[in-house]
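Structure (tokenized):
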């Protein structure tokens, strides 16, 4: 089987899919916009860049010619684009079959609502697809606002060989509350900082661990100073993905207080549960789908630091409940979000498509 993935090369999610295919004997290439190219990832996966010769959305049209040339030369059995609003649109214009599209979040939750042209672009893209995948049921429902086609729910699971409990990293007499996200408001980082400041008033043996980097890092560092918790807050900056399980395993509670429905799946929450760390998430997007309320974690209202603090405190103060939730989280991920099972589900879809003979 030959698969061509049209997606941002620098995305860890793109690279994860491509590596899985390669390791399963599939001939795979990634084709990406030049400004989304990752030299590091290209060392492992054959990667081709598309030029952006024109400004804005017009660049999509200028990219089609280069894409068609690659399709003609490579002749993939499966052509799979990611994002309905950019790569998906370019892929649709190429008019190649079978054409797969995976929606990711903002491309269906926000982009179509930002003008009639954007909406028409998404509707056109979806009209040209043979198979549409969504990582969550709520995003599938949102996608169905723009197409009446069946949407396959294809969860983006985690590698349980990497994300697992690592004994000895937690301290018995210290509490670590944390998250692993990009440092942007849409992930509720400021809400988490405010919630921790409340928690610290009664738990002076607690610390806040924020793993990741982003445009608002300096703003959040200043916020911790203003709230006088900077001496018990650690900003690690960006860390390699293979080190993320170690950081999660240092935490007693993991928080994902995102503020937008474009948080379509909640990979970070699933990674935490796989490590046996209970989670507290906000009630947006696909987050409530991946967390079993009261069993693997808690779901709280978005943009509500008080409720966030209350849920985290309840876990910190009840170690037995926290331990039970951690164990339940591992079993929940094993049953529903094991990466190998989820990725094989996509391969099953590919095989089904090929048997039905969808070919350009």
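Design, position by position:
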């Amino acid at each position: 089987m030959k698969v061509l993935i049209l997606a941002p090369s620098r995305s860890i999610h793109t690279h994860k899919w491509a590596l899985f295919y390669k390791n399963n004997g599939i001939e795979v290439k990634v084709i990406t916009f030049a400004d989304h190219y990752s030299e590091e990832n290209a060392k492992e996966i054959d990667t081709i860049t598309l030029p952006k010769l024109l400004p804005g959305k017009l660049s999509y049209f200028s990219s089609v010619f280069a894409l068609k040339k690659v399709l003609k030369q490579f002749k993939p059995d499966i052509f799979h684009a990611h994002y309905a609003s950019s790569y998906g649109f370019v892929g649709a214009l190429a008019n190649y079959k079978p054409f797969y599209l995976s929606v990711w979040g903002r491309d269906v939750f926000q982009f179509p609502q930002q003008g009639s042209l954007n909406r028409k672009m998404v509707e056109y893209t979806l009209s040209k697809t043979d198979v549409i995948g969504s990582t969550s049921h709520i995003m599938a429902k949102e996608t169905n606002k723009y197409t009446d086609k069946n949407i396959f729910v294809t969860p983006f699971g985690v590698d349980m060989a990497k994300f697992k409990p690592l004994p000895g990293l937690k301290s018995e007499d210290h509490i670590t509350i944390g998250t692993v996200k990009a440092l942007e408001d849409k992930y509720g980082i400021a809400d988490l900082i405010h919630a921790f400041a409340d928690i610290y008033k009664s738990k002076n043996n607690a610390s806040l661990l924020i793993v990741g980097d982003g445009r608002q890092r300096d703003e959040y560092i200043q916020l911790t100073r203003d709230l006088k918790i900077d001496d018990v807050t650690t900003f690690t900056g960006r860390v390699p993905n293979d080190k993320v399980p170690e950081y999660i395993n240092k935490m007693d509670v993991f928080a994902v207080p995102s503020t937008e429905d474009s948080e379509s799946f909640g990979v970070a929450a699933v990674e935490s549960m796989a490590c046996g760390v209970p989670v507290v998430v906000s009630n947006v997007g696909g987050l409530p789908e991946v967390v079993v309320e009261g069993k693997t974690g808690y779901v709280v209202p978005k943009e509500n630091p008080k409720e966030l603090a209350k849920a985290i405190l309840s876990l910190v103060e009840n170690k037995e409940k926290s331990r039970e939730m951690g164990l339940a989280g591992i079993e929940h991920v094993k049953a529903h979000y094991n990466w190998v099972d989820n990725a094989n589900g996509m391969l099953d879809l590919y095989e089904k498509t090929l048997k039905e003979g969808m070919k350009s």
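Reviewer-requested clarification: The CA atoms of residues 4 and 79 lie 5 Å apart. The chain has two domains: 2-157+339-355, 175-336.
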